[in-house]
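User: I'm writing a short report section on ligand binding and want a predicted complex to refer to. Could you take this sequence and FE2/S2 (inorganic) cluster and write out the structure as tokens? A short remark afterwards would be nice.
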Amino acid sequence: MKRRTFLGAVALGIQGIIGCVLALPGLGFLLDPLRRSGRSRGFIPIATLDTAAFDRPTRVVISADRWDAYTHYPPGPIGQVWLVREGREEVEPKVRCYQAVCPHLGCIIDYASTRAKFYCPCHASEFDISGRRGIGPSPRDMDELQCRVTEPDKQGRRWIEVRYQEFQTGGPARRATT
Ligand code: FES
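Assistant: Sure. The structure tokens for the complex follow:
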């Protein structure tokens, strides 16, 4: 092989390597939304166990990382849930978690302690303490979320963790949107 041809081939190879190295971050940037579209937050800690009252549901605003296409935002409010403690068991505490968004048209469900019922202020749907639909136009029960209580951490605190999801409103079927 001629010296000139050899040097040309080496230069071309070096250019190819440099091109690949420069292209990788750009490729990662472009493909990042696709990678994130399948990403689930999984279980996120939302409150310590002692935050959840025994005698009435407790509303919790959930704060977590947020993504918007190519932008990552620091933790901020992503939604609200209602926590309901079942029984007074301290060893194996049971907590249920309900999405606070009304299945009818998406208003935030409130709780009336005098009637011991959840109710929606927009169109007066009512739900019992287990989230079951009562009177009003809601097409289904309150949407229940997966929820668990952790073992005590180093400070002795037990955390309530929730797999947070949002659901479509307006129909009887429960369909997740996140
Ligand atoms: S939005 Fe809740 S009853 Fe209509």
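A remark for your report: The longest strand covers residues 71-86. The beta strands are 43-48, 58-68, 71-86, 94-99, 110-112, 117-119, 126-127, 144-149, 159-163.
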